[in-house]
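cron nightly-structures :: item 1 of 1
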Amino acid sequence: MSPIRLSVSVVVFRPDPVQLTRTLATLADAIVRMRDEVPVSVEVFLVDNGGLPDMASSVLLLERCGAGFEVIAGQGNVGYGRGHNLAIERAQSAYHLVLNPDIDLDAQALARAWAFFAAHPEAGLLAPRIGDDGGDIQYLCRRYPTVLDLFVRGFLPARLRKPFATRLAAYEMRDVINERDVVWDPPIISGCFMLFRTDVLKRLKGFDARYFLYFEDYDLSLRAHEIARVAYVPAVRVLHHGGGASRKGFAHIRMFVASAFKFFGRFGWKWL
């Protein structure tokens, strides 16, 4: 049996070195477990948008599990989507994983994802069950947002969100997302972990480079539905340590708003 070819891209800008090391270590563990099930050839692209620390120990871990490793640097801070596109252009794989540097993979994540793709040739994009630091589900599959949904979820304190609980639950698909059931065709999935058939991703030409940060995953998710099916697969599990734009300061709020204008300008405004 010829090896399954998997490529992985991780874009970093001034990353937390401890978390990045943990992300790559859990990726290495997941590669080893996948190799127990099927021959696999892996190429990891680490895209340095600035501030990459010494990664010698992580490189050694990946090399020990048989993964190739390439740092893409020198482009400056080109943004999240454009950074991933630099790796996607180089990818010569059957599957490509877009991965955040604040994700811990369950050891079985890649093996279970491959098994799902093998059983479902119609699936072109997979979203995992995403947990938080407390072990609860992060509801990061979404229906199409309204401006009000984004404002309430992103910027209101928790105590002020209570009157909007029902609409936010609908936006976050809490009625169908759970620990057990595969959900087909959630409109939007999170860019922290997007596992594609590479031919689907290349047909989409990767991320839209007009988004510097935020909403590039919303855009790519909606476009993916045009050519393939999307699946939420809770047997594939990851842990996400990320936070929202409002907790990262004014610069992130400004980027969030700018990207929201681009998104709604392309796909249509929904206010309430």
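cron nightly-structures :: done
The two ends are 53 Å apart (CA to CA).
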